């Protein structure tokens, strides 16, 4: 049954109440037409609950806008949703990605995440290419997708809104990786389901690293907003040592926008529930709204918390990752760097949930506490305990 406007209804009941289902919910294609965004194809999803989000076809099917009943969920940065054709991957010493960094979710990968890196390239068997240079967070988020399809699918009395596409990242004498992405949301639901499969289509053994940069903004993020997660220990903090408490912002409770704030990044070791799920949430009790990311521990063994609390850029990030925060060289040194052989693939299923009201916030808070009680102190001492991943 479809849950619409407080009642469960059959497909026949819904059809009887309108000439077109798009009155209530649906997926439609648009093309942005002005400024830096000009030319980007965008799919708009409406689930019928007040959940609306957009998927950028020409930006790896990443999620840009997200709002719920008039309240913004996803973060918009000063860069805007820049057309991929304007992106300069090698720009600014590898930091050019920051000029295309905006939206609820950006994909990092497919062969590299985190800060810039230069790695040996002998696996590509091409003499002139001695190394592979990678900029921050990899190439994939600025590659246009080939759209396989989108629309509404009725399964008996259940209606699923969906889109699916393929993103190809390849080079001669280099990687040939493919991301196949499907995004689904049930009509009447506040949960977005992201299903990814990354495969090596080439015949060179190729590195694979993967991360979602999921960014929540105001009003979910505001003074007093809380970070909820089943934290076993804090492994690393970018600002630890003498700088640890200098900005007076811990991991648990968020302040209002700050002037002169330097980003803070934490890696937390998370516990999973009996089904292997790791829920992490940002909640605003005053607004009675929250946002929860549910990843799978065996797919994303690591989790980062990103705090960009600078006025004018105010955001917090939930980042499930395949690798530790110290990046590609650290993974190679520990023999934890993944490589995909021809035909090999890895799959990822992640759920993005709107928490509507106090009862939903309490439900997730209790779920997290039942898995693992998170540290009560705002500045847990980083342990440096980087658990073996592979």
Percent range for β-strand residues = 35-45%
Quickly give the structural class. mainly beta
What proportion of the residues is helical, as a percent range? under 10%
Number of separate structural domains:
1
CATH topology: Beta-galactosidase, Chain A, domain 5
Short description:
The protein is mainly beta. It is 8% helix and 41% strand. The relative contact order is 0.14.
What does this structure look like?
By secondary structure, the chain is mainly beta. It has one domain (22-371): Beta-galactosidase, Chain A, domain 5, CATH 2.70.98.10. The protein is built from 4 helices and 25 strands. The strands form 6 sheets. Strands 11-12-13-14-25-21-20-17 form an 8-stranded antiparallel sheet. Strands 8-16-23-22-19-18 form a 6-stranded antiparallel sheet, with no helix packed on it. Strands 3-4-5-6-7 form a 5-stranded antiparallel sheet, with no helix packed on it. A hairpin with a 5-residue loop joins strand 12 (158-170) and strand 13. The model has no long low-confidence stretch (mean pLDDT 96).
């Amino acid at each position: 049954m479809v849950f619409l406007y407080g009642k469960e209804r059959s497909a026949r009941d819904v059809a009887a109440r309108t000439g077109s289902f798009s009155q209530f919910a649906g997926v439609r294609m648009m093309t942005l037409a002005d400024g830096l965004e000009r030319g980007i194809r965008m799919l708009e999803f409406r689930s019928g609950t007040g959940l609306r989000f957009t998927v950028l076809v020409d930006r790896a099917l990443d999620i840009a806008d997200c709002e719920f009943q008039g309240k913004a969920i996803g973060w918009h940065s000063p860069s805007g949703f820049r057309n991929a054709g304007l992106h300069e991957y090698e720009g600014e010493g590898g930091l050019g990605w920051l000029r295309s960094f905006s939206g609820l979710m950006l994909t990092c990968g497919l062969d590299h995440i985190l800060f810039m890196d230069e790695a040996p390239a002998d696996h590509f068997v091409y003499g002139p290419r001695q190394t592979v240079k990678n900029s921050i967070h990899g190439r994939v988020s600025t590659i246009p997708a080939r759209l396989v399809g989108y629309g509404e699918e009725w399964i008996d009395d259940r209606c699923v809104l969906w889109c699916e596409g393929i993103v190809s990242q390849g080079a001669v004498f280099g990687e040939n990786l493919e991301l196949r992405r499907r995004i689904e949301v049930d009509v009447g639901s506040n949960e977005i389901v992201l299903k990814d499969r990354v495969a090596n289509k080439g015949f060179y053994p190729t590195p694979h690293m993967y991360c979602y940069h999921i960014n929540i903004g105001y009003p979910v993020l505001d003074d007093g907003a809380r970070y909820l997660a089943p934290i076993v220990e804090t492994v690393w903090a970018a600002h630890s040592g003498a700088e640890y408490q200098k900005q007076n912002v811990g991991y648990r409770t968020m302040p209002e926008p700050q002037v002169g704030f330097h980003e803070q990044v934490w890696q937390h070791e998370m516990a999973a529930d009996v089904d292997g799920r790791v829920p992490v949430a940002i909640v605003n009790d005053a607004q009675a709204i929250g946002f929860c990311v549910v990843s799978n521990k065996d797919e994303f063994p690591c989790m980062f918390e990103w705090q960009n609390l600078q006025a004018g850029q105010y955001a917090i990030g939930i980042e499930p990752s395949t690798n530790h925060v110290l990046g590609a060289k650290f993974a190679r040194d520990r023999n934890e760097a993944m490589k995909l052989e021809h035909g090999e693939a890895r799959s990822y299923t992640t759920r993005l949930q709107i928490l509507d009201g106090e009862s939903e916030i309490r439900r997730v808070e209790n779920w997290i506490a039942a898995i693992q009680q998170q540290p009560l102190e705002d500045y847990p001492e980083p342990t440096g305990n980087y658990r073996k991943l592979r």
